[in-house]
Amino acid sequence: MKLIIQIPCLNEEATLPAVIRDLPRTVPGIDVVEYLVIDDGSTDRTAEVARALGVEHILSLGTRRGLARAYSMGLEYALNQGADIIVNTDGDNQYQGADVPKLVQPILAGRADMVVGCRPILDHPEFSLAKKGLQMLGSWVLRNLSKTQVRDAASGFRAVSRHTAMQLFIHSSFSYCMETLIQAGEARLRVVSVDIGVNQSTRQSRLFDSIPEYLWKSGSTILLMYALFRPSSLFCAMGGVLLSVATALALRFAYLIYFTEALSEGRTHIPSLIAAAILFISGAGMLCMAVLAELLRKNRRLLENIQWELRRHDLKMREVADNQTRRFKSANPE
Ligand SMILES: Nc1nc2c(ncn2[C@@H]2O[C@H](COP(=O)(O)OP(=O)(O)O)[C@@H](O)[C@H]2O)c(=O)[nH]1
Ligand SMILES: [Mg+2]
Question: To pair with 287 at 20 to 30 A between CA atoms, which of 64, 102, 179, 208?
Answer without folding.
Answer: 179
